[in-house]
Amino acid sequence: MKNILLMNFGGIGDEILFLPVIKSLKEEFSDSEITLILEPRSASIQALSDDINHIIKCDIKAGGIKKYLNVLKLVLEVRKKKYDFVVASGSSPLVAILCFLFGVPKRYGYSSKTSFLHTQAVKLNKNQYAGNMYHDLIAPISNKVCGLPQITLKTNYEMPFAGDFVALHPGVSKMSVMKNMIKCPEASFWKELIEGILAKGKKVVLLGGPDDDEIISQIGNFENENFYNLYGKTKNLQELASIISKSSAFICADSAPMHIAVALNKNIFAIFGPTDDKKLIPNADNFRVIKGARCDMQPCLWARRQTTCDTLECLKINSDDIISKI
Asked: DSSP label at 307?
């Protein structure tokens, strides 16, 4: 098994959750080369893992005929190479069809209406941590146990101050916001939280990327020598990960930076509203889940609806609930 093909479409968070699969396969087949098919928006995952040798980008979410042209291009590109087996996530019947068209002799994926096209189909169990769900795919190949995602730090971001600090990342992906999948509290919550932590005499670092411009501008700056706004100062995920790795605590919503913090095994305060924390963050003492008012529909996003409701009671959180624990 020298040439392994993996396929996992999704955001950068999904790719981080998929890393235990890659790690286990690399340990099982130490002299193999691993190629990962993913969406262009998640290509930066390669910078976080030494186990990914090659990536193939395919915009599976493109509109109209462009989507099918992208898929055709992907099939032709894969068929040029000789892969020993392919492991593909996704429960859509199209996944097995696509793997079959690749012409790879051994094909592993979840059970579906077309999974007879796989050489081995695995039952999909969504009622568990997503990292474990993905890792089930390689149970027929490997006896390795799924651990936490692991990322490789190659960059040392020089902090503009000395001493420990609390890092905050208040945003989520712009795609989530555009699709009305609201997963983080309003800016007023983050302002109160920052003010409360600063009042304790602790240093606070505010983080964010291009997708977070709106909420960062609403939060604004603070006239306090212990406040450091590093929004837009990080050039890539490596620099963001470096800052998170230096923090004494990391506060965030359900987002890709949360998965980075999990991979770094940091002290995390993760805010969850409409999504299911049991599926998205491992159960550990240093991973603390913060929730708002209890709602009978919670968790609802994806399980019961594709967009969030208007009231968002589940995201109305008292900042003291976090400040008192820091």
From this structure: S
Least Cα distance to 130 among 266, 309, 256 occurs for 256
The answer to whether the CB of 257 falls within 8 A of the CB of 238 is no
Give the CA distances from residue 126 to residues 94, 101, 133, in Å, rounded to whole numbers and listed in that order.
19, 27, 6
Predicted confidence (pLDDT) per residue in 50-70, tens digit: 999 999 999 999 989 999 999
How far are the Cα atoms of 14, 65, 106, 118, 122 from residue 97, in angstroms, in the given order?
22, 18, 13, 9, 16
Are 264 and 245 spatial neighbours (Cβ–Cβ below 8 Å)?
A: yes
Closest C-alpha among 138, 72, 59 to residue 101: 72
Residue 190 in tokens: 């983050």
Q: Domains (ranges, CATH) in the chain?
A: 3-138 (3.40.50.2000), 166-323 (3.40.50.2000)
Instruction: Give 111-131 pLDDT, tens digit per residue.
Output: 999 999 999 999 999 999 999
Cβ atoms < 10 Å from Cβ of 266: 19
Instruction: Please state the pTM of the whole predicted model.
Output: 0.94
Residue 123: other Cβ atoms inside 10 A: 9
Percent of the chain with pLDDT over 90: 82
Question: What is the edge-to-edge ordering of all strands in the sheet holding 3-7?
Answer: 54-57, 33-38, 3-7, 85-88, 106-110, 120-122
β 249-253/166-169 pair status: parallel
pLDDT tens digits along 233-251? 999 999 999 999 999 999 9
CA-wise closest residue to 1 among 78, 84, 80, 66: 84
- Give the DSSP H/E element, type plus range, for residue 252: strand 249-253
Sequence-distant contacts of 292-300: CB under 8 A, at least 24 apart = 292/185, 292/316, 292/317, 298/273, 298/274, 299/272, 299/274, 299/275, 300/274
